Amino acid sequence: MLTCVSGFVVGSGIGAYKTQELRPCLDDTLELLVQVFSFPRGKVCGPDTQTPCLDDTLQVTGSSITPALAAPVLEKSLCGEVAVSAADPEQSQSQQRIQAVDSKPSPSQQRIQHMCDFILAGATVKASDIVRKGEEEFSLDVDKLITEQKQKVRKAYELRAKQVETSYAIAKSMAINKQRLEKIKARQEALVRTGEEVKVQLAQEMTKQDSPKKFLTQLIVQGLLMLLETEVVVRCRQSDSKVLETCLQDASAQYATIIKTQTGAAKACKLSLDNTTYLSPAPIAGKEGPSCLGGVVLHCQNGNILIDNTIDTRLKLVMEQAKPAIRGLLFPAK
């Protein structure tokens, strides 16, 4: 239901507005309706009269508009909008005519527009601040993450470098130690080969002698001077037993002479040949097993005291005592 009040139309669907406050806006709206729809103003209705100016249906130049259609027009006019939702083409044309006529904004629309612009500007500033702060926080987070990852990579690299250095040091030490052991082993093998070669040469020298009697006699005298006993048993190789029997008397006489000369005392020694136990035979090329190059073994006191004066033992003693000199000859210092 539309009612004309003091020259303007108020619809029940608009809301409870005060007449005096809305008068300028409503006057403009009424003028639009008169110009667009071409219907008379009707009677003026106000506080002094109750006569309605229009019925429920308004006759508008061949078409009609109901209060339900007019109410949105008034409401949108108050809010700065003049578009009317019309389903038929005639109502759409009416909306275009309203928009063409009401091209100039009203003061209320201007105030509302200013408020909207102010709010939009503040919101834009706020949004810019939020975006800026977000970008700053993002940059800080990215820098922090990059720094942390760099530190992790650096620590991992340092740990890996230490592991590589440790592995290299261990491998180097093991290689040096292995080389040193191989060097010692090679030198020891060289010394052993030298001893074997000396044995071969001694064996050849022993076979070249016309009679080993003098050599065996000297070996027996050395043993007697170490024992200083009155009765001594001499052991030799079975191949040297016959030669050794001829050496016992001469060895005893030389021993007594040496004691007499050195001490002035007369001391004799009874020598006997051990016919039960013999030394190992001479070495044979290509044959393994115990062997003896020659010499004698003296024992007394029922075998409790024994002197090994064989060539093999004397060679070992010389090789051990003269090892530094032999190494100097075999492996001269650079």
TrEMBL record:
Region listing for Disordered, in residue ranges: 88-108
Q: Name one GO cellular component term.
A: proton-transporting two-sector ATPase complex, catalytic domain
Q: Which GO terms describe its molecular function?
A: proton-transporting ATPase activity, rotational mechanism
Sorted alphabetically, which keywords does the UniProt record give? Ion transport, Transport
* Record field: transmembrane: none
List the Pfam families hit by this protein, alphabetically. vATP-synt_E
| InterPro entries found in the cross-reference section | ATPase_E_C, ATPase_V1_Esu
Report the sequence similarity comment from the record: Belongs to the V-ATPase E subunit family.
Name used for this protein in its record = V-type proton ATPase subunit E
Q: What is the organism field in this record?
A: Polarella glacialis
